[in-house]
């Protein structure tokens, strides 16, 4: 009797509709992280740049204290749910695109400098990227940078993020990038002619709540 009931229950299970989703949704649905960039998020003033780095960084314009800068921005990263790619959309205000030297995604918790994970200068000139004050770009695994050095540390460490010190591997994929975003340790950093070390403005990335 128990055997017949078990067989009947199993048959019902096989007759239920499948719950697997269309695999194509992995490339067309997204997990989204965003940040509002501001000078206040930079962990220091340009005047505090380590002496050993001043010459190599070569700021070519006078710096302005964080509290006096008018630069602001908003950026987001949309990770495809199959983690094959991500889309970056950024808009800035109060900055002349011609003054932009570098724009990166770094890895580090709030208040700390971290290594560059994505260098948008490898996609195009930052000044061209921000023509009109905004840009959008698609990135894949090839754009996730192998970290060669950590700010202020010689010899360099092999980890991809200061919060991950102790792990033996680096982040080399979009999947790894989304993992770090989930931990709240990714940030945008915009560097200008006047603010080359800490940066003009910074934006820590956090998950968008649906």
Summed over residues and divided by their number, the pLDDT gives a mean of 84
Trace the largest sheet across and list its strands: 6-3-2-1-9
Overall helicity: 10-25%
- Strand segment tally: 9
* Distance separating the two termini: 49 Å
Count of individual domains: 1
Shape: elongated
Strand residue content: 25-35%
Q: Kindly provide the radius of gyration, computed on alpha-carbon positions and rounded to a whole number of angstroms.
A: 22 Å
Find the structural class using helix and strand composition.
alpha+beta
Number of helices: 4
Low-confidence stretches: 153-158
Main β-sheet, in a few words? 5 strands, antiparallel
How would you spell out the order of helices and strands?
A: HEHEEEEHEHEEE
Explained architecture:
This protein has four helices and nine strands. By secondary structure, it is α+β, with helices and mostly antiparallel strands. The protein has one domain. The strands form two sheets. Strands 6-3-2-1-9 form a five-stranded antiparallel beta sheet, covered by helices on one side. Strands 5-4-7-8 form a four-stranded antiparallel beta sheet. A hairpin with an 8-residue loop joins strand 7 and strand 8. The longest helix has 14 residues. The chain is elongated, with a radius of gyration of 22 Å. About 3% of the residues have low confidence.
């Amino acid at each position: 009797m128990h055997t017949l009931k078990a067989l009947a229950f199993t048959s019902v299970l096989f007759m239920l509709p499948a719950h697997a989703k269309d695999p194509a949704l992995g490339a067309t649905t997204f997990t989204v992280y965003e940040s509002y960039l501001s000078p206040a998020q930079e962990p220091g003033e340009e005047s505090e740049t380590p002496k050993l780095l001043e010459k190599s960084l070569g700021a070519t314009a006078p710096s302005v204290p964080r509290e006096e800068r008018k630069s602001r921005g908003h950026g987001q990263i949309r990770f495809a749910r199959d983690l094959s790619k991500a889309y970056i959309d950024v808009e800035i205000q109060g900055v002349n695109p011609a003054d932009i030297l570098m724009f990166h995604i770094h890895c580090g918790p709030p208040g700390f400098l971290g290594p560059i994970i994505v260098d948008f200068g490898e996609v195009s000139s930052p000044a061209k990227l921000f023509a009109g004050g905004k840009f959008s770009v698609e990135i894949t695994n090839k754009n996730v940078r192998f970290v060669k050095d950590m700010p202020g540390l010689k010899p360099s460490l092999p980890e991809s993020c200061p919060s991950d010190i102790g792990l033996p591997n680096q982040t080399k994929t979009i999947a790894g990038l989304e993992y770090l975003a989930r931990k709240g340790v990714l940030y945008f950093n915009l560097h200008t002619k006047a603010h080359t070390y800490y940066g003009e403005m910074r934006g820590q990335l956090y998950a968008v709540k649906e």
